[in-house]
Amino acid sequence: MYIKRGIIKELGKSLRRLSSAKRVAIITDKNLSRIYGAQVLNVLNSAGFETDVIAIEPGEKSKTLATLADVFEGLVKSRITRRDIIIALGGGVVGDLGGFAASSFLRGMPYVQVPTSLIAQVDSSIGGKVAVDLPQGKNLVGSFYHPEAVFIDPDFLDTLDAREFSNGMAEVIKYGCIKDRQLFEELTGFDKNELLNNIETIIFKCLSIKKKFVEEDETDQGARMMLNFGHTLGHAIEKYYHYAKYSHGEAVAVGMYRVTKNSEDMGLTEPGTSQRLKEVLSKYGLPYEMPAGNAAEIVEVIAMDKKNKGDSIDIVLLNSIGDGFIKNINKDEIPRFFL
Ligand SMILES: NC(=O)c1ccc[n+]([C@@H]2O[C@H](COP(=O)([O-])OP(=O)(O)OC[C@H]3O[C@@H](n4cnc5c(N)ncnc54)[C@H](O)[C@@H]3O)[C@@H](O)[C@H]2O)c1
Ligand SMILES: [Zn+2]
Fold this sequence. Notes:
Blueprint: E1 2-3, H1 11-18, E2 23-29, H2 30-46, E3 50-56, H3 65-78, E4 85-90, H4 92-104, E5 111-115, H5 118-124, E6 129-134, E7 137-144, E8 149-152, H6 162-179, H7 181-189, H8 192-197, H9 199-216, H10 231-240, H11 248-265, H12 273-283, H13 295-304, E9 312-320, E10 323-330, H14 334-338
Helix pairs in contact: 5-6, 6-7, 6-9, 6-11, 10-11, 10-13, 11-12
The protein binds nicotinamide-adenine-dinucleotide and zinc ion.
Nicotinamide-adenine-dinucleotide (NAD) is lined by residues 29, 31-32, 35, 58-60, 63, 90-94, 96, 116-117, 119-120, 123-124, 127, 129, 138-139, 156, 159-160, 164, 167.
């Protein structure tokens, strides 16, 4: 995991140290290929790699089996072998789809992640989960497959639009809430410039927290659950609006605030925590209130989720800022915690 401003300029040299590949296939999306394609090709070609670019349409609608088939076709055309290497250059969509392609093409190719969105830099590029969606649901076909390396260049964030930046900030705030009070305090105090000046350290802190939980629980049986703070309700909100109205981060922001407000009212969370959370979410352009009118129906989505089998579910609450814990609740308690 390398985090450094401008690291993309050294990508050719860094790959040379990792691999004796002749060819590199770059899986990316059309936005990134337009903005960064020439620069990336230039650094790779200068380091002596033969390159091919496979650029998918941007966005979640591309995280499909059909796009995966197109990517496989591109990989065949590029004539890469298992001694060569794949780069997934993009946000979480490219990372998940490109990683899954790498996990299965020629029974598994070495690959590196070059995450470009804030969500990808603080979350999706590590942990080894790669997947595509099916019409029946998100991430239904995938595997656990780790990259050889992750190269994180915060300079990519300069071209990310404000809503996508906020989308990633929800996850950054989440890490502060569950495990790092100091990070949360910094987020509260920073202005935009200070945030950007400290972004390398912030990304490092987030990934260290994720890494710790992932290492404890590589195949997602228990400890990783802590990373789901705000996600039980967040996923329900996203799903209720067919992944169109709320970004993932916006839905998680509402989920974090709602559950914390309720658990505070029940005496399970230090008083004042939800107010502090509300302030920091607003500061980074994120919502916190449940959509008026549909709240009860959204909460019903939680109990209907196929992942939530049995009579009880595990949810993540905060003792206080920086100190998350997992609580098993009975399904009939879902409205008390989420409505
Ligand atoms: N594998 C995991 O553990 C994990 C974790 C979290 C999220 N995810 C997945 O990640 C996906 C969401 O990721 P995302 O939000 O990055 O979506 P995304 O990849 O669609 O990127 C969002 C948009 O930002 C653009 N973009 C990305 N980087 C840019 C840059 N530097 N400059 C300008 N534009 C840029 C993209 O072209 C796209 O239009 C979802 O599919 C989600 O399931 C996976
Ligand atoms: Zn998330």
